[in-house]
Specification:
The complex is a heterodimer of chains A (226) and B (608). By secondary structure, chain A is an all-alpha fold. Chain A contains 8 helices and no strands. Helix content of chain B is 61%, strand content 1%. The longest helix of chain B has 37 residues, at 72-108. The chains are: A mainly alpha (226), B mainly alpha (608).
């Protein structure tokens, strides 16, 4: 709450001026990249929330056909998506362990796990593309129905964020290879891990949203006042 | 996650590598000042294109059918591109990318942005967005003519100019711009939160930094709405989805869309669009506060109220968007809610206007060029703001919607006013950027021409709106309810607009001439208190501050402090170093904290 406390400051008054505090100590010692990541995650959250609102609004139109709820609909049995979810979960676990082993200076395990983290993330992307293919061949093409459109669109945008994460991770490792700064590597890997966990939570949310049935959408929309 | 401690940025040793080659210094530069100048030149360049476009559309309106190169399609394209370029690619980019980049690190006492590389990337991505946008002039069918709001379904249907390629280029360009803004925006907020000099508490920051800070947060939260709408409309256009497109019969044929909601697009667009007004206005509010305080030699009246007003406006700006949609067919009950919030947001805005006036009250006003523009801003902003209150009410808005009254309103409040501040800011900070003053005589011609000229344009436009002249029409033709004399008014507006446009060339000439031949300015020509004027070199070199960062000892507005020799005390002057007035017998008064206390008490009566 420091931010809000500071807003009540009156530095122009006599009784203010805690000189020792403000003029010898710099403002913050949080890693700048951590602050930036927090803001970035807020931005991404806003992006997905807005997509979700449009989804819920669009789901109330008559032509909207949910992707689960009836035996012939593709996500009544969402086992392929559950497999992908598990893969992404393990990618996050690997990232967490990467940080753990880097701290313990167990370099071999660190290299093994960071490679696993990257590979599993890529595998998740391929898994999602596989789901796209299955949907397409089952007759649920992109333009057939708004529910399909949203599925392709939202999983695509989530996938792009994962790919962005893998690129950022590669950049972090590349920087370490160039400059050999272990503390910086640890800081940046910690932030990457937070990003992976965040994207996992976003995926769980999207999973639940996109595989709901018509009755669910109706009740959510009713609850939200659409 | 374990807590690791890091050295605060203000405590770090300067280990930055100063670029040597021309390319790393001026082209692929990571220096915030160079990036700011790159942003500014690009934004002003593309803004001049938009100015020419507005001249073309005014020619058609003032003298219909006299110019063969303006047909109805190109007229709509000029309107659209003029609007979008001015709002996004000029104002947002110049205020945040230009002034934000230049002023944030200097005003808070930092060496640079916290992520210089990202900052550089932000500019080059912005440039790419501008290139893609301008490229749409050269694709077949030309740029989009859908109006700057790009409403579906017409934006992507045949019959609208640029519906094949222009709209695609526009949407892609917007998406690229948003990526650029996000990179820049993350940099600005992190820099302000993390890289402030010692002693620079939040409430000691100049209002310029406050304005830019809150505007950046608004941008980070609002631009995703535009991105979402741009992506979904691109899908509708390119892939054939029906996010926004309803079932439609176009030119006698059934089109392959069904079930989409155009109003959903409008909600998304204005959820971005209204905060966008404040993304432009808040930095302008901040900068004009600093210009007024400096040139009136008086502390800003009600600093804390000003900060809270900025934050309140920022928050409220997210709950007023549907006042742009009273006639859209949305639920009529929404109108009541949004009219109420619109009236509420006028309160903190009015507080700011009163505080500027009360800062001028009994100030030692210097009518310098920046001050002329700042005072001009108070006029134009008040006029534009008051018509905003009228339009914010549903019953008044309904008959006036889509008339010239609306055009006049938003040009006064969002066009002329921020531009007045931009000019005030350019005349004010140009001596720091270049080391030279802009020419005063040319500046006066520029100010009076612009100020009176814009009134000559927009005051009659309000009247045309009352008459019911609709906006975006290529030509009125014969219309019973509009008298023929309206055309005479339109012609006079066009002549004024051309004069104002030409006068901007005086400004461009002034800038170029002054860079080479201008009067030398010195480090602190306006006797300002804020940190950017306290650098040891002008223009500041890479790293800004030399070996050690400044330490801040006071707030940003110690002007005309009683008992002090000079009429200003820079933020980095230690209380012991303040030079006091000598007593009549020649003995110097006691220096230091005791006197400070007396001064502060005296001042605090004004402020709290």
């Amino acid at each position: 709450m420091t931010f809000f406390r500071e807003l009540t400051d009156k530095p122009w008054l006599t009784e203010y001026v805690p000189l020792e505090l403000t003029e010898t100590k710099a403002e913050s010692n949080e890693l700048p990249a951590k602050t930036a990541l927090k803001f970035f995650l807020v931005v991404v959250t806003v992006l997905f929330v807005l997509f979700t609102i449009t989804f819920l609004s669009r789901s109330q139109a008559n032509d909207f056909q949910a992707l689960s709820g009836e035996p012939w609909l593709p996500f009544t049995d969402a086992s392929q998506l559950w497999i992908n979810t598990t893969i992404l979960l393990f990618a996050g676990v690997c990232m967490q362990l990467t940080v753990f082993f880097l701290k313990k200076e167990q370099i071999n395990r660190f290299i093994l796990l960071i490679s696993c983290g990257c590979l599993l993330s890529c595998l998740f992307i391929f898994g999602q593309i596989n789901v796209w293919q299955q949907l397409y061949y089952a007759g649920f093409a992109l333009t057939e129905n708004p529910a399909n459109s949203y599925f392709y669109l939202l999983t695509g945008i989530h996938g792009l964020h994962i790919i962005g994460g893998v690129l950022a991770l590669s950049y972090v490792v590349f920087q370490f290879w160039l400059k050999n700064n272990k503390k910086r590597l640890l800081d940046n890997l910690t932030l990457c891990t937070v990003y992976w966990h965040y994207l996992f939570v976003v995926w769980l949310f999207l999973f639940a949203l996109l595989t709901g049935n018509t009755a669910t959408y109706k009740s959510i929309a009713l609850f939200c006042g659409f | 996650m374990t807590q690791t401690t890091h050295t605060a940025i203000a405590d770090q040793v300067d280990d930055s590598h100063h670029p040597q080659s021309f390319i790393s210094k001026y082209i692929w530069s990571q220096d915030h000042k160079v990036i700011a100048i790159q942003y500014s030149i690009t934004a002003i360049g593309v803004g001049l294109v938009a100015l020419v476009l507005s001249g073309m559309m005014r020619l058609q309106l003032g003298f219909p059918d006299q110019f063969s190169f303006i047909d109805p399609s190109s007229y709509l394209q000029f309107v659209t591109m003029h609007g979008m370029i001015m709002v996004i690619y000029l104002l947002t980019a110049l205020l945040l990318g230009g002034f934000g980049n230049y002023l944030i690190p200097l005003m808070i006492g930092a060496r640079d942005m916290v992520f210089p590389y990202l900052n550089m990337l932000s500019y080059w991505t912005y440039l790419l967005a501008v290139i893609v946008l301008l490229a749409s002039f050269f694709v077949s069918g030309g740029p989009t003519g859908a109006g700057w709001t790009l409403y579906p379904p017409q934006a992507i249907l045949n019959g609208t100019p640029g519906a094949d390629n222009g709209i695609v280029f526009m949407l892609i360009s917007l998406a690229i711009f948003i990526v650029a803004f996000t990179m820049g925006g993350l940099n600005y907020v992190t820099t302000i939160l993390q890289a402030r000099a010692k002693g620079m508490t939040l409430m000691r920051m100049p209002l310029t930094v406050w304005g830019i800070f809150v505007a950046t947060i608004l941008g980070l939260l609002a631009f995703p709405a535009l991105l979402v709408s741009a992506i979904m409309m691109l899908f509708d256009k390119l892939v054939g989805t029906s996010f926004f497109m309803p079932a439609i019969l176009s030119l006698g044929e059934n089109i392959d869309y069904k079930g989409g909601s155009p109003i959903l697009f409008q909600h998304l667009f204005w959820f971005f669009g209204h905060p966008e007004v404040y993304i432009v206005a808040l930095p302008a509010f901040g900068m004009v506060s600093d210009v007024i305080a400096t040139h009136a030699r008086k502390n800003i009246f009600g600093y804390r109220m000003m900060v809270w007003a900025i934050i309140a406006i920022g928050g409220l700006s997210f709950v007023v968007w549907a006042h742009h949609m009273y006639v859209s067919g949305m639920n009529p009950y929404f109108g009541f809610f949004f009219a109420t919030t619109t009236l509420i947001i006028a309160v903190p805005t009015a507080i700011k206007v009163y505080n500027w006036l009360l800062t001028l009250w009994q100030g030692n006003i210097h009518l310098t060029i920046p001050m002329l523009f700042a005072i001009g801003f108070i006029f134009t902003f008040t006029h534009g703001g008051l018509t905003g209150l009228m339009l914010g009410n549903v019953v008044v808005d309904l008959p006036l919607s889509d008339t010239y009254f609306v055009v006049a309103h938003f040009h006064m409040v969002m066009g002329v006013s921020p531009v007045m501040v931009l000019f005030a800011a350019i005349y004010h900070w140009f001596p720091k950027v270049s080391g030279k003053f802009l020419h005063t005589g040319l500046g006066k011609v520029h100010f009076w021409g612009t100020f009176l000229g814009t009134y000559a344009i927009y005051l009659p436009m309000h009247y045309l709106g009352f008459l019911g002249v609709p906006r975006r029409y290529y030509a009125m033709g014969t219309t019973d309810f509009i008298p023929e004399s309206a055309q005479a008014l339109n012609a006079s507006i066009t002549i004024s607009a051309i004069i104002v446009g030409v006068i901007q060339l005086v400004f461009v000439f002034n800038v170029i001439w002054s860079v080479f031949k201008g009067k030398k300015a010195g480090d602190n020509p306006w006797n300002s208190t804020t940190l950017e004027w306290q650098t040891s070199q002008t223009p500041p070199v890479h790293g800004n501050w030399g070996p050690s960062l400044p330490v801040v000892h006071r707030w940003a507005y110690d002007f005309s402090v009683p008992g002090v020799k000079d009429d200003f005390i820079p933020q980095n002057v230690h209380p012991d170093q303040v030079i006091m007035l000598e007593k009549e017998d020649g003995a110097e008064m006691v220096k230091g904290a005791e006197n400070e206390e007396g001064m502060q008490n005296n001042k605090s009566g004004d402020i709290t």
